[in-house]
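Regression report. Comparing outputs from two consecutive submissions.

Submission 1:
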Amino acid sequence: MRQPTAGIHHITAFAQDAQGTVDFYAGVLGLRLVKKTINFDAPEVYHLYFGNEVGKPGTIITFFPWAGSRKGRIGGGQVGITTYVVPPNSLGFWHKRLQQFQVDVTETERFGEKYLQFQDTEGLQLEIVEREDGENSNWSFGGVSPNKAIKGFGGAILYSTAPEKTGHTLEQVMGLTKVREEDSYIRYQATGDIGNIIDIDTAVTYAGVGGAGTVHHIAWRAKTDEEQEQWREHVQSNEFRPTSIIDRQYFHAIYFREHGEILFEIATDPPGFANDEEAEHLGEKLMLPAWFEQYRRGIENGLPDIEVRALEEDSE
């Protein structure tokens, strides 16, 4: 591949409670709801995007919240832990804030870095780490100011059913570099300044089950539509079976499942989330692609009401 990926574009997960998801990621973590739309393949389900002030690639976590859906089990074939990165000297702030919201926190260390590990309200596994790299977010909400705010992804820990094969794909297909090994972890690094550190935990031996509280897929960055075409050819030449290029309104995507059973997506940086609404009003109303507009009333009636709101703990 002529141009390796810069790192993670976005991560998409399943949930059950739409308002609970908004409260946690906007209210607790202070991310911006940058897009409120639907699952294009299941329009009765929201697709919610959270990121920095503009939803820059490398900052975006997305959710399909579906009330009554089955609970998943985190394991092999999934992203096991999603890593967020914050500015230096802000880990203490985040520890205190998470405890303020009654979130159980575990302190741990890996490759010489300190992490705060915790779960969201659905059981999705998350962690926060401090790093210099990456620009600060300009978004402020609740009790989170820009100098403490989450910059975006630090990376992720992958749970693979075949760690050696997943590592080979990261290096030989996606263009990451293997940099270190420690205990059960193997670390790989992409070229970007956020969403660029990927660890494989080789100790995970049990299979995951998709459902609420688990990651559906991890998406990697392609700079342009032209590069996306090259990526598809490259993936296919490595004996994977990528989908055709799919229009996701805010990026174009291909998908393939690597040999450790993790679903990979490659998504283009453009056109971005201001594609269909002004940047200052991102996430304020339900946005539908043109082919669903004729069904707007029925779609809106079938979706639960949600709102971005400051939580009580921030007023204490």
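Submission 2:
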Amino acid sequence: MDPENKPKGPSPHYSLYQREMFKRGGETGILPSFSVHPEELQESTKKKLNDRGYFYANSNAGLGWTDRANREAFYRWRIVPRTCVDTNTRDLTTTIFGHKIPAPIMFAPIGINKLYTPLGELVPARVAGELGIPYCLSTAASQSIEDVARANDEGASEKNESNSVHEYSGPNGGNAKSPRFFQLYMGHDDEVTLSLLNRAWKSGFDVVMLTTDTWQLGWRPTDINIANYVFYYPGAVGNEVGTSDPVFMEKHKQDIEKDSGKWIDSSVWHGKAHTWEKVNVDTQWKNISGGRPFVVKGIQNALDAKLALQAGCEGIVVTNHAGRQVDGAVGSLDVLPEIVEAVGDNMTILFDSGVRTGSDVFKALALGAHAVMIGRLYVWGMAHEGVHGCRHVLKSLLADLDITMTVAGYRSIREDVHRNRDALRFCASGVPPGPGEHAKL
């Protein structure tokens, strides 16, 4: 807690963010404007957004059992603390796809961010740049690829304590501070796909992440109740990547003027599955980028992880789309160990789905993930206060992870946590409290 007693280490002392909030409250009476307790944060988000915005971010498939399974999986794995370990400095750094990043946390791709704040994807892109952590842009974004890249650059150019120690030379050339990923929904028009990939590469996105589990939108009753599919509404947001694409607009300008859902139906949730053969022969991104990584998102099965490796993918994202696609499915953390066992360090393994706390990040890393993606957390933050809210949630999560490492007795992510099953114990019994029940305990 004492900033005068913190020797410089490989990572910033993210933990001091807690002290900053304590001191501000004690000295000036200024308290945080919203709670970062995940359940309280989700609940308060309901008051900040209309139904369309809230449910688009929070709807799940069916009864929501997969979403609950994600949280139950984290509950069953318990951290085993060590003591009398010198954790005065921590090393939270890691390297993914040639990028050294200050902490093993990434922004997951989430579409139509203008539902949550007027500047949309410009907000998380800027915060990611400020903090030096990777940002992933969705094909269903409500800002253009080029504008998001500029916002990320602007955030990275901010000279402050949070990012001044994170400068490195990125594989795309130049002095990069925050790697950029482009999440691709690949339709069946290769000319449009080629245009998107070229735009992404020219804008400094140097890893492509192909989402494979959402070519058909899952059954989401809470969205059906209010016809919550904003892409079909006149003047809808969510089509900006398409309407800013010259190839798509040359082919479909008249179509999209008559039917605003043309972009989303033909290029995003296009209703026709791709196969591993398509992934295996798809060399467009490799040709454009000079061989930069191609990652498959949506892996829940060890066999699929092996097939991704055989197809030439450098990485996978272990995720069930946060429970939004298949109801009653396994929690992503439940299948992570067997997927890690199947492909090991032959691939970069990213984890997504159900992450809420620093302890959750720790557990996913100990079970073999190289980095963890967060989604709903940052949406809830920016829904409250735009850039400030998003930044507050991310700095809080980083502080939570840093403090967890400190008090649990683990100094280095790479040396002490990653794939360290001895850092965890599995408890098969019990389930976590339901939403809102934590206040009763």
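Expected: both submissions complete independently.
Actual: both completed, but the second showed a warning that disappeared on reload.
Relevant detail on submission 2: The first helix runs from residue 16 to 28.
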